[in-house]
Every structure is written in C-alpha cells, then in structure tokens.
C-alpha cells in the first residue's frame, strides 16, 4: 500500500502520516511511496482503532492543560489544523475550542516566557506536570534515548529559543493526571512533534542563518537590523538598534580621528588641568626674590594666566609684573613637578652695595657746585634766584620754554652752577632730615635795609649744622636805607666774619632788583667750589637725590633728580625709595630733552612707578630685577620701622647710647620765651661737664617750637629743649613722626638737671602702662613651626603687634610677661585683631598657655620726666 492510501484508511493526512513514519524510522520519499505490509499493519493497528473513540473528560483536561502551559505553541504547531491527537483526545474539540490563529507577536512573547522556563528547566517535569521538548533540529540527541527523551533531557543551555521557538512536544501529549510517571517518559511518541512547529522552528533558524550570512557578507548593519527584527521585540529591539547605531557612529568617529587629533582633544578637554599636560621647560628652576609672575610662569613653562589663577586660589591677586612670594612660588612649582632651588642672593641694601659697586677705576673730575639760597622773609631770596635765572638761563636758552623742575643750572665763564629752586632753610633741613646732603654752598641773603633777623640766624644755624659753607649776599644795596656795615656787624655776632674783616666768610653786596654784582656773586660761588674741591666721576652709574617729585598729568610721576655721581641716562634701571623701574626720559629745566645728565645736574626723570619723597636717593642699578628687589626690601624695612621705631635720640636712652658709643655729642635745639632765657640756658648747658659727651647747641631761638626746629633736630639728631614755650601743633605732630624728643621746662635748673642726669644715665623715664586689649585663650595648639599657639577670642579692645608686650594672666594672677611672637587671623599674619574676633596668638618664649588664660596686650606710655 502506498502512504496516501494508508492515510486515507486511518483518516489522516498523508503528510501527517509521513511524519509519523519518519518517527517510526520508516523512510518514505513521498505520499505515493509504497509501504511494506508489516508497516501498514503497524499503522493500522496504531491508528485504525481510534477512529470514533474519545473521552470528553480527557479532552477537557488536555485542553485545559494546553491552555495553561503551551497554548501558543499548540496553535503554532497546529498551523490551523488541530490534527494532532493525543491518546483519548479529540482533535476536533480542541480545534473548535481554540481556533488557531498564528500570531507572531504572541509567539514571540511566549518565546520569552519559554526562555525563562528553560532557565528553570532543572526543575523536574513532574513538578510542573509539563514536558518541554526542544525541536529536533536544535536538540542534541542523547545516544541511546528516543528522540523525545533525549530532547527532554537535553540541557537547557543548549537550547536557543531566541532564534527558534521550541514548541514543547510534551504539551500536546499530557500525562494522565493520576500518572506517577514523569511526563518525559510518558508514551507520547505518536503526537510528540507537530510538523508545523518544526516549520516555525526551521523558519527562525533560517532567518538566523540568513542573518549570519549577511553579516559575513559585509552587510553587517542591515543584517544585524534584520536579525534584530527577527529576534527582538518592540522596545528592546529599538534600544538595541540605537546602541548599534551609536557603536557604529563611534567607530566611524574614532577612525576619522588621527592619533594627533585625539591628543589634542585630550589636551583641550575642559576638565583636564592644563598644568598636568603642559610640560615644564625645565626640570628645575632657580627662584629668586623679586621674581615676577611673568618670569615665574616662563621659568616653569606655564601660561602666566594659569599661574595667576593658581595664585588667586591661594588668595593672592597679583598682576603679571608683580613679584611673587617665594614660598608660594615654591609650592606652585612643586605642584607642577618642577624642582626648585631658592637662590638667596644678597638682598636689600646688601644688594644695593653690590649694585652700586663699580669696578672701573675712579677718575673723579671737578663738578659744578650745588647752591641753595636762604634768608629771612622778604630779604629777596626769590628775587635773587629769578634775577640769576633770567640773566643766565634766558641768555642761554633764548625762546626756550623753561620747565619748573625745582632746580636749574647756569653757566658762567664755561663753568656751571646748579641752583636749587626751593629757597629757605626749611626745605634744606627737611632734605637733610632725610639724610640727604645735596647743597654744597649756601647763599645767605640778608637785606641791607633790614639786617640780621631771626630767620637769618636760623638759616645760619641750619647751614652750620650741616657743615655747609655760607656765602653772604647783602641784598637791596640799591636802597637808600641800605646799611651794609650794620649787616656785617650783626653777622659777625653769629660767627660769620667777612673776609674784609679778616674772617673767612665771603660777602657780596648785590641788588637783585637792579641785577647788580650778580656775576661777582656767581664768581665767588665758583671760587668757593674750587676751595671745596667738589669732584665726581661722570663714568660711574648715576646716583642722585630727589629734589622734588610730583604727579604730572601727561607724564605720570616726575622727580627732579640731582645727579651727584656718575651720569644718568635714558633707559637706566633705577631704584628710588620704594620704587623701581627704567628711566624713560630726562627733562632739563631749560626745556627740551636730554639723553643723559652728568654730575651736579638736576633733571626731571620720567618713567617712575610712583612719586618718591624729596630727599630719597636715586640709584641706577644693573638691571630692573635688582632694582625691584632693593625697592621691595626697602618697603619691607619701612613697614617694620613704622611698627618699631624708637626715638632717634632722646634723653631717656642717651646714657645707653653714650655707653654703646653711638653718641659722642649731644646736639640741642633750644627755644625759649625770651632771648635772655635761651641764652642763660645755653650758657648753663655749656658749663656742664663734657668728658663723656660733648654738648652742642645747634640752634638757640626765641618763640614756640616750630616744624623747622623739629626738622633741624631730626636732621642733626638733636633734642629740643623748650623753656616756657610749647610746640606748635604741627611741630608736635612732626616730632612724633620724626621721633624727635621735645623736653619742656619752666625752671632752668630742672632742664640742666635732666640733661646732666641723662648724661650720667640717671634719668629715669616714667612709664605708664595702658592695656590695649584682652583675649581669652579658648584652645591651645602645637604648631610644628610656630610652637604653642593659643586660639583666642578678643574679649575687649585690640590685640596688636604695635604694643610693648603681652601678659598672660591665669586666675587673675599674671604668670608671664613677654612679647607677642605671632598674631594671626586664619593663616595670615595680621597687625591687629579687634574685639569680637578670633585669632591665634603666640607668646615669645612661653609655651605654658592654657585654655582659660587671659592674654593682655599692653603699651607703655612714656611720661615726660619733668615739666
Ligand atoms: N629795592 C630792592 N628790592 C628788592 C630787591 N630784591 C628783592 N626786592 C624786593 O623785596 C621783596 C621781597 O622779595 P622776595 O624775593 O619775594 O623775597 P623772598 O626772600 O623771596 O621772600 P619770601 O619768599 O617771602 O621769603 C619784593 O618786593 C622784591 O621786589 C633788591 O635788590 N632791591
């Protein structure tokens, strides 16, 4: 019999029968293949008796089970036929109850579920009551076992349900509910596998293969997408696609970037600190004091902006050309991996010495004299200066616009004379008080009609105190009431004796108004200069003194500098006071411009970084950095001096200073209410023993103590003795700032006794303590470098460095008195801390600070010994 005939007989489709035959191990080529008689008999025995039989109960059970466990698969497997029959099952009933609808989506969902179930495949089938059999093409048959059994026993890991859904054959061949036999061993061979299920599986497998082929063929992207369509549901698939696209894009991107460009990208990545990748030019650098931000940045191979940023992070706002704190520079360099070597070159004034050091052979040449005109009010100082300038300067520079620079030079018989334009002894002494000696010769103007007046005497005293020779110009001789002889007499009383009278003082009778004897006066000046043998070497680097300085609108700070040594040139690096820089231009008084100025010439200097003070030394140094260092060190010293500063000379410490050998002479400025008193005082002082120290009255005048008196005292290291007079307010303030000791008396004896006691070291100054502030110790720290530091809270007043000392008080009992070692707010050293703030205090040589201690900050006010 042929296959289709048997199929007809048993009521099956030829196709189904062919499958069954295959399972039975009977190969058939087609539905018309002939079958052996025994095979036909077996088939008939197997299928023929079932015709018309069936148990509703069993059917129900099967349907229910199938619905629970493998509905989708059965639908898929049925392929719409419902022909698969199990023992006692009525295919028709099943088909009617659940109309087969191939639903790919549902299959896919189920497929996922199957995955989960496969993962749980270790669970015995008896527990679930279901058998999941993988499709034969995916199952790895276990030798010696029937296909179904081997499929059921196949390890779940081998199953690839994502690609080929595997309808569990066992679903459709449920074990009887009461059967204790495991489902896998249930006799389910005839209906174990439904052909349509195989078809679905092969379809999926085919899709996979196709996809693989496409991948291999280079159409990776499209194929992957296609494959995904097959195997990935909805959202998951979208995500996967997006990821794939991203990967592809990244890959393209990476391939497009050259190695070099990738490096660049890293370098410019915002978060990467530039400092880590910019290689310093040098491995080690030398740090020198005064190094600017710019110089440091160059040295460490960084952008100045980055260094400035780092400084800002450390709380320092510095510009490019400001010099850096060495410690901080060291830290930054270290951070950048640059080794630092701090060169400690000569600093400050030491450096100044080096800077001023000139190795050339000294060849001093005669230099012009520098003259200052002094005299009493209205005696004609300005008129004389003007007369000289007009006759001499105007003659030379006809039509030239003269500049006011505070000094000018004239020429007579090929020789120059420099006049300082600020007449009067005040300016002269102010300059001297600053340690500047600029004047070589003083022209003392005395009006012939007025004679010697108080300021004439003052001028004499000031000039004498400075050891400057005086040439007397007896002015206004054109006036009918002029009395030259009277003037000479009066001057003789003050030790100015005319040459005509056998003395040494040159006296010239002039008239500023009529311009009489001006040349003679100038000739005398030159003569005196010859006597003085004024010399300087013009080849040296310039050194001078600031005569005056101002802020010019167009030029910035301009200082008139009197060159005293060497030659000042445009472009020279200089240091003046606490400023430094380079000379940009030189302006002479006669107008125009100069490229250089030699000894005794006064020039306006342009290119200053600030306005210096009159009397400051102007020094040309090797380079700008050196200049800057000196300037900074000076500024530091100046600040320190402001904080400390004892009196220059005072009666209180006179004895100590005599002992130290500091003082060999005590200069005195005496001011009294009446001439008689001042003279009496001067005489009494003169009589004091002078073995230890010589007493010298440098000025003895009548009237209140003036600023000029204080200046003279400051310039000469003198003490001012006031007898029945008071200092003018301005003079008192100046005495304070110049630290000049003013002693006021109303009894001559007291003044003498004090001076005597001071000379013998017996004068006991009286001091009164004044508490400036009190701070409570809250906590004590041991700081490695600073030692014991007390974290304090200022209870009242101010804790200040500018104090005489501190006292540690514990339970109202002073336990230590000493000096303040450090005063800090956070990390910064501060000068003072006000009430209500916290601070760190270190007490010099005292480490036994305890919480609860009170630190008193006090100052000792000196009380004038006697009045
Ligand atoms: N007759 C005459 N008058 C003169 C002479 N020199 C100056 N005067 C006059 O004296 C007055 C004062 O002259 P100044 O040159 O201002 O005197 P000073 O010393 O500069 O005065 P202060 O600047 O106030 O200290 C002016 O009115 C001048 O005209 C002179 O040689 N003869």
What does this structure look like?
With 867 residues, the chain is of the alpha+beta class. It is built from 28 helices and 32 strands. The strands form 7 sheets. Strands 24, 25, 26, 27, 28, 29, 30, 31 and 32 form a 9-stranded antiparallel sheet that branches. A 7-stranded antiparallel sheet has the order 15-14-19-11-12-18-16. Strand 28 and strand 29 (828-829) form a beta hairpin. The longest helix is centred in the first third of the chain and has 23 residues, at 56-78. It is elongated and about 180 Å long. Guanosine-5'-triphosphate is lined by residues 375, 377-383, 423, 475-476, 478-479, 511-513. One of its GO terms (molecular function) is GTP binding. Keywords: Cytoplasm, GTP-binding, Initiation factor, Nucleotide-binding, Protein biosynthesis. Residues 366-533 form the Tr-type G domain. It is found in: Cytoplasm. Residues 173-184 have a biased composition (Low complexity).
Provide the structure class. alpha+beta
User: End-to-end distance, in Å?
Assistant: 157 Å
Helix content: 25-40%
Model regions low in confidence, pLDDT < 50 over at least 5 residues? 50-200, 210-224, 226-232, 250-280, 394-399
Shape assignment: elongated
Q: What is the overall pLDDT average?
A: 72
Bound molecules: guanosine-5'-triphosphate
The percent range for strand residues is 15-25%
Largest β sheet strand count, sense and barrel closure = 9 strands, antiparallel
Q: How many strands in all?
A: 32
Determine the number of helices (DSSP H or I, runs of at least 4 residues). 28
Radius of gyration: 57 Å
Subcellular location: Cytoplasm
Biased composition (Basic and acidic residues): 233-246
Main location: cytoplasm
Binding site for GTP: 375-382, 421-425, 475-478
